[in-house]
Fold:
Amino acid sequence: MQVSGKVLVCDAIDQKGIEVMKKSGLQVDYKPEINPDELIGSVKDYDILVVRSRTKVTKEVIDANAKMKIIARVGVGLDNIDVKYAESKGIQVINAEIAAMTAVAELVIGLMLSLARSIPRADAAIKNGKWLKKELVGIELKGRYLGIVGVGKIGKRIARIARGLNMNIIGYDIVPIDQQFVREVGLIVTDLNTLLSSSDFVTLHVPLTEDTKHMINEQRLSLMKKSVYLINTSRGEVIDEQALYNALKDGKIAGAALDVFEVEPPTDSMLVQLPNVVCTPHIGAQTYEAQELAANVIAERIIQILKGPE
Ligand SMILES: NC(=O)c1ccc[n+]([C@@H]2O[C@H](COP(=O)([O-])OP(=O)(O)OC[C@H]3O[C@@H](n4cnc5c(N)ncnc54)[C@H](O)[C@@H]3O)[C@@H](O)[C@H]2O)c1
Structure:
């Protein structure tokens, strides 16, 4: 069955998703560089808005189009969309929930190893003609305690991979964690403060909400071991960056790996310049597989919604 409607794709997405939408009869305009003013000016011509994280779907954007049916996020977090307001206007907001799971989990493992073995520092030194063999004594992951804050889709995937590396896994979530999974990975379920004080690595996988903003602050950082490595691939605002900078500079924690920042690209160069910080530019979901899957999942869901119940 063919469907009809006009779709505005505001951010760069995998072309396969666009082909799927076009094949189903949808008219798709691909404007991955559109700026906020252009978006507000032209959004009224469309039934469906497709975004990744660059485009902010604010009240103003929503109010500029009374006939909008769907806002689709080709990715996981919905914090760039005013979901409550959109839903109050009868607009369906959808995302590609599982698409990034493996990509983010594998990046976290890479970041843990980068911190444990100083891989970025070793690489930079060799390229500068320095042979730091004596200084670069690292630690092994085997037997270490990995604390996962937010044991959802990504957190669970990391736990499964980390078990393969013989790590011990500690988990904290606000909702009860499925018992079968707890048994499968031997998860030690605890409260946040105990997790923070017991882990050798802490990795954050909560959504950005009012409760999780600055969840990792000065007080929580002070609970952590001096030898801990903190990894954040969730959202920058989950950590108070000033507090993190102070803790890293003063040696209160050993290091951090950050894929996300309070402001992106980060303007606080002091934090990213610290030698015990490893940074990546929000590439958690940037794999060919994740991008293709996210675009396809979103295209199929849009078509399904427009077709209505079978
Ligand atoms: N770096 C990237 O490119 C990238 C890519 C994908 C997702 N993400 C981020 O990762 C987050 C997690 O993704 P997911 O697919 O695992 O989501 P998910 O919804 O499956 O899991 C999130 C978990 O966090 C828990 N949670 C919520 N509030 C909490 C709190 N206050 N304390 C403890 N736990 C809490 C939830 O109960 C849930 O189990 C996303 O919300 C997104 O912000 C980042």
Residues 76-77, 100, 104, 149-155, 172-175, 205-209, 211-212, 233-235, 259-260, 282, 284-285 surround nicotinamide-adenine-dinucleotide (CB under 6 Å). The mean pLDDT is 96. The first strand starts at residue 6 and ends at 9.
